[in-house]
Every structure is written in C-alpha cells, then in structure tokens.
Design brief:
Helix content: 10-25%
Distance between the termini: 45 Å
Radius of gyration: 23 Å
Number of strands: 33
Shape: elongated
Strand content: 25-35%
Oligomer: single chain
Structural class: alpha/beta
Length: 424
C-alpha cells in the first residue's frame, strides 16, 4: 500500500462573491494575480516548496478555468505516478448526488481519496490567500508538541481581531479556547484556515459529524476535537499573508508587488512561485512608450504610458493612452487616447479609443456599495466598452456594451451596468 507522510487538501471551491464581476464566470482561486499568476498558484507552490507532493484540489464553483490551469500539475512538478495533484469535484453517488456544502463536508466526501494514501498527517488549505509558508516547519512544530490538530495563526491588531476566528492559548501554545468573530477578543491570534490533522483524528471527527448540515471546520470539526480532549496547538506565522477577498484588498495586494522593496517578493530564488505559462513572445515597448514602477506580462504591447500598474500577459495598450494605479488582466486590448485611473480590468476585455475610466467625484455604488468602493472601476471579463465613453468611480461594467447603453457617452460614478445574459 502507498504510504505518504503528509498529503494536502486544498479547498478551491469558493465563489468569492465580494470580488463582484471578477468572479461571475470564474472561481476565486483562478482569478489572475500579479500579471502572470493565478491566486491558487501560491498555495500550490507552497506545497511543492515544502516537500508536499500529494495535493487534492477540491473544486466546485465555475471550475473550468481552474481545472484547465492545474491540468496534471506539470508547472508545480506535481505530475506524479503516485500522488501528484488531483482535481476533486463533487460527483454523483448511487444514492444521491450532493454539492459540497461546507469546508469540512468537502473533505468528508473525499475520505476514500485520502485513505488511498494512508497518510499520517493531512494538511488542509484554502485556495484564496496570497502568502509563502513552509508547511514542513509547521509539521515539525505539530510533531514536537504531540498535537492532534495544529492551527496556523497570525497575530493581528487587536482592533481587527473581531473579524476573525480567534485562538486563545496557554504559555505552551496549546489552544485552551477559541471564539468566532468575538465582540471583545481575548487574544489577537487569528486562525488562517490552515490546519494539520493527524489522519486518525480527522477521520474520526469527520465520521462523527457527517450528518451535520454545512459541515465546517471552524464551527464543527475543531470544536469537536477540542471537546474530545484532542491536544490542539497554535502555530504562529509572521510572514506576509493577504486575504484577497475584496476588490480593494485584491487591488492593494497587486499594488504592493510593485513597491521598490516589495513586502511580498515574487523573485526569491529559493521559494519560487510556479504557474502555468503560455508560450508568449517578450514584451514590446514602442518608442513613445513610458513605463514606471509596473509589472508588464509577457507578450504585452505597450504604445502608451503605464504608471504604477500591473499589466498581464498579451495585453495591448494603445498610443497616447495613460494607465495609472490599475490592474489589467491577460489579453485585454485598450485603444488609443484612453485614460485609466485605479481600474481593475478583467481578462479579454476590449476598450475602444478615447475611453476614460475613473473620472469625476467619488459617490457610493448604488447596487453593491460594499463591493465596488474605494474609487475603483471594475470591468468584467470579455466586456466591450465603445469609443469615447467616460466612466466614473465606484462603478462596474460587465458585458458587450454599445453607445446606446450610455447617456451622453457617460457612465456616472456609483453606477452598475450589467448587460442581460452576461451575468450567468
């Protein structure tokens, strides 16, 4: 029988609704990041860099792009005869077919997959955070403490602690209590949603709670293990970790990559971030092009000016166009004489000549003020914006739009424009 010391289960089914139109056609872990990567590249690269060579990726929502991206795992050196990367969507069973209803339910439905490797330890990860972490160091801590469950935690400012699941520990880092989003936190150690379980402990907890609707780690499995007297420990992580769950945090994390000394360094030799790359020609910059403090993806053609932006692969930026503080994803074409300020433009978008994004006063978005905020303009994938249109701040456009969709060539600040048939 195959025996693996530790296998990883990567939860990548998330819809990521707080990313608005960016995730209406693609799962959050498959969203582009940093020009050439996708969000899921970070936990997958962490696995291979940590010596974890068996990864089950649990997909659910809009999995096509994610499945294509992962393929058989070649970029992460995870194409193996034994182990490697396996995409695990929900599947039909003879009695009833069911979607994954909670984080732990997804793991429960794949007990047979885990059993086949007879692991000693199972690492549970989420597919939508940007960070570098050596899981081997966490495993050493887990063994040294004799833990049944180890939860990775991160110190957060006390005033932010009420947004997280908080762990309360003793001097030995043993978890004595935990609180979900407490009003008055007793500790600032926030759970990162990264767990190492002894396989026996995990299996028993899943089987004992399998009838729970929406079976969840934070709500059911961890409390069950705690009550059963299993030793739970908190492993403190102090590196860079970013939840890119909102448009603003996603925008910020991309912008941090272009700092002169980036807090999160994509260029470290010893901890590479692997991704599936298309075979593309090098970037082309014309005589008139100006690029300052930006990341420019392979195969991009730049004829205009780009400041403080992250430009994906295969993007074209026309002449006399100025792009500032923006994220432009792969294969988007921007015409001549445009102006983009603080825009997030998804993949395969066409912006015709003389379009202005992010102009005028800032007003709250009328449909989703909590999603489209901080002055950002968001354009969903495969959208088309016709010539000469100006777009205000805190706005969203999704779909193939025509001049008739705008009043006097103007899409006012705070407005949402989603063409029927494009949101499905």
């Amino acid at each position: 029988m195959i025996k693996k010391e530790m296998i990883a289960m990567l939860l990548a089914g998330g819809q990521g609704s707080r990313l608005g139109v960016l995730t209406s056609k693609v799962a959050k872990p498959a969203v582009s990041f940093g020009g050439k990567y996708r969000i899921i590249d970070f936990p997958l690269s962490n696995c291979i860099n940590s010596g974890v060579d068996t990864v089950g990726v649990l997909t659910q929502y809009q999995p096509l792009r994610l499945n294509t991206h992962i393929g058989i795992g070649i970029p992460w050196d995870l194409d193996r005869n034994i182990g490697g990367v396996t995409v695990l969507p929900p599947y039909e069973k003879s009695s009833n077919s069911e979607w994954y209803t909670g984080t732990a339910n997804a793991i429960y439905q794949n007990l047979d997959y885990m059993e086949s490797f007879n692991p000693e330890y199972v690492l549970i990860l989420s597919g939508d955070h940007i960070y570098k972490m050596d899981y081997e160091v966490m495993l050493d801590f887990h063994k040294e403490k004799g833990a049944d469950v180890t939860i990775a935690v991160m110190p957060v400012p006390m005033e932010e602690a009420k947004r997280f699941g908080i762990m309360i520990t003793d001097g030995e880092r043993r978890i004595t209590d935990f609180e979900e989003k407490p009003e008055n936190p007793r500790s600032n150690l926030a759970s990162m949603g990264i767990y190492i379980f002894n396989w026996k402990t995990l299996k028993e907890a899943l089987l004992a709670n399998s009838e729970q609707p929406r079976l969840d780690f934070g709500k059911h499995i961890i409390p069950y293990c705690h009550e059963a007297g299993n030793p739970l420990y908190a492993y403190e992580f102090n590196g860079y970790w970013k939840d890119v769950g909102t448009l603003h945090s996603y925008w910020e994390a991309n912008m941090e990559l272009i700092d002169i000394v980036p807090e999160f360094n994509l260029y470290e030799e010893y901890w590479k971030i692997y991704t599936r790359s298309e075979i593309l020609p090098p970037q082309f910059l014309s005589d008139e092009a100006v690029v300052e403090r930006s990341i420019i993806g392979e195969g991009a053609d730049i004829y205009g000016k780009v400041y403080n932006s992250v430009i994906g692969c295969g993007v074209t930026i026309g002449k006399d166009t100025v792009v500032r503080d923006s994220i432009i994803m792969n294969n988007t074409v921007i015409g001549d004489g445009c102006e983009l300020n603080k825009a997030i433009v998804a993949e395969n978008v066409t912006i015709k000549d003389h379009v202005k994004l992010g102009v005028g006063e800032e007003v709250p978005n009328e449909t989703d003020p909590q999603i489209y905020s901080n002055g950002i303009v968001t354009i969903g994938e495969k959208s088309v914006i016709p010539e000469g249109i100006s777009v205000g701040k805190n706005t969203c456009i999704f779909g193939v739009t025509t001049k008739e969709d705008y009043t006097d060539n103007w899409h006012a600040g705070g407005k949402t424009l989603i063409k029927a048939g494009d949101e499905h």
